[in-house]
Structures are given as structure tokens and as C-alpha cells.
Design goal:
Layout: H1 7-18, H2 24-32, H3 41-51, H4 57-73, H5 81-86, H6 89-93, H7 99-119, H8 123-133, H9 152-161, H10 171-183, H11 192-205, H12 210-219, E1 222-223, E2 226-227, H13 228-231
């Protein structure tokens, strides 16, 4: 376990950041229960695939996932992982034009569909089963990690939505965590895997979950002069 000499100072710094995002615990509890998007694993996969190309999550990804839900899930046209695998490209591109995202989403869905058959699962249980058994070390060899277009951030994001208390080593998360560690005079791990393991270890030592620290880093960012916690306060409970 990571040994922090000035743990009290680190906790004080972390508490200051976490106090800015009071709703983060509730949101993360929903994520760890695999209950985002009302527990719809197909939408979670699409969310991760859209997010993989780096567009603004709240302004670009969330509205398009919601549009997919309204147009195809609610209508019964694309409801399961198998449905997505078989769906015509032109119909999918009406919602989201990036072919790479759909390729990622389809290949993830195809693997989860195979798990469903193997274990007689539903979509959500298949995602949870994968996430609980997906390794961090050697993630590139995992059936989902090895999919072209799935980097470590998409992989970790899916594990989080499958109920794993972990963190994504993306640039925003690293920037904020490094800022916190710098203020607390704690050394910062640079390697992605080391970073994830470090945050997983220190989070409970300062009274939080790793996933809460991860979401905090995104939610304290500002857009148009407002923090995301303020700007998207009504949206967060829905996703």
C-alpha cells in the first residue's frame, strides 16, 4: 500500500476539492451499482464508445446517447447488445456520424452478447461479469481491451460502469490529481497503470472511493463561467 507521510495534509487538500462536488457520491454510487442510464448496459456501452473520441462529454456525448435512447431503445428497434451488432450503419449514423465509435460499440456489444449466451445473462449482468473479471495489468490482452479503438481510458470507464471502484488515467483526471498531490507535497506516479493503482490505494486513506476522485476531477471543471456541478445539476441524476 502507498505510504503517505503527510496523510492529514493530503486529506485536507482532497476535502477542499470534494466539497465543491457534493453530488458526486450519489452519482458514483449509481455508477458502482451499474445503474447509469437507468441500468441500461447498451446505453453505457454506447456512452463509452462515443466518449472514446474525446469530444465534450456533457455537450456532445450525453445528448446523442439520450437521442439514441429515445429514437431506438424506447421504440424497441435497438434494445439489446445483439440488436446493436445487427443494426444498419445508416440508422446508427443518423445519431452519431463517427464510424470509429460505432465500430468500438459494436465489437464491445458482440463480446458481451457472447457472454450472455455463455452464462445465460442479460445485458447488464454481462457487463458486470466482464468488469469484475477484467484485469488492470495486461488490460490490452483482455477481449474488450484488445478491441481497436479501446484505449485504457475507455476500458477503465467501462469497468467503472460495470461496478468497479477505479479511476481513468485521462488528462483531466491526471491534471487535477497531480495538482492535489503537488499541494500536499506527495510524489506523483507518471505511468498510467501506476497512477490508477496509486489513486485506488490513497482514496480510502483519505476517506473516499477512487471513482469519486475520478468524477470529481471532471465535475469541478468550468464551462461558460459555471462549474459543471452547477451547469449540469439537473442532468447528473438522469445519467
Amino acid at each position: 500500500m502507498a505510504q503517505i507521510n503527510n496523510l492529514a495534509n493530503l486529506k485536507k487538500v482532497v476535502d477542499g476539492y470534494m466539497s465543491q462536488v457534493p453530488m458526486v457520491r450519489e452519482h458514483c454510487e449509481r455508477c458502482l451499482a451499474s445503474a447509469r442510464w437507468h441500468g441500461n448496459a447498451l446505453l453505457m456501452v454506447i456512452d463509452a464508445a462515443f466518449d472514446s473520441i474525446g469530444l465534450n462529454y456533457f455537450q456532445s456525448v450525453v445528448p446523442k446517447v439520450e437521442l439514441f435512447r429515445q429514437k431506438y431503445v424506447e421504440s424497441g428497434k435497438i434494445v439489446t447488445m445483439e440488436d446493436l451488432v445487427k443494426a444498419p450503419n445508416d440508422k446508427l449514423r443518423e445519431i452519431w456520424k463517427n464510424s470509429r465509435s460505432w465500430k468500438v460499440a459494436r465489437e464491445i456489444a458482440a463480446y458481451l452478447a457472447r457472454l450472455k449466451i455463455q452464462y445465460e445473462y442479460d445485458d447488464r449482468t454481462a457487463l458486470i461479469h466482464w468488469a469484475k473479471n477484467a484485469p488492470l495489468a495486461g488490460w490490452e490482452e483482455d477481449p474488450i481491451g484488445s478491441i481497436s479503438g479501446v484505449g485504457i481510458n475507455t476500458y477503465q470507464y467501462l469497468r467503472m460502469m460495470g461496478g468497479v471502484d477505479t479511476v481513468m488515467p485521462d488528462k483531466i483526471v491526471k491534471k487535477v490529481i497531480y495538482e492535489i498531490l503537488g499541494k500536499a507535497r506527495v510524489d506523483t506516479p507518471q505511468d498510467d497503470i501506476d497512477f490508477v493503482l496509486f489513486v485506488e490505494e490513497i482514496a480510502p486513506q483519505v476517506g473516499y472511493k477512487a471513482i469519486e476522485l475520478c468524477w470529481m476531477t471532471w465535475l469541478i471543471q468550468s464551462e461558460a463561467g459555471l462549474s459543471r456541478t452547477e451547469k449540469y445539476a439537473s442532468l447528473l441524476p438522469k445519467i
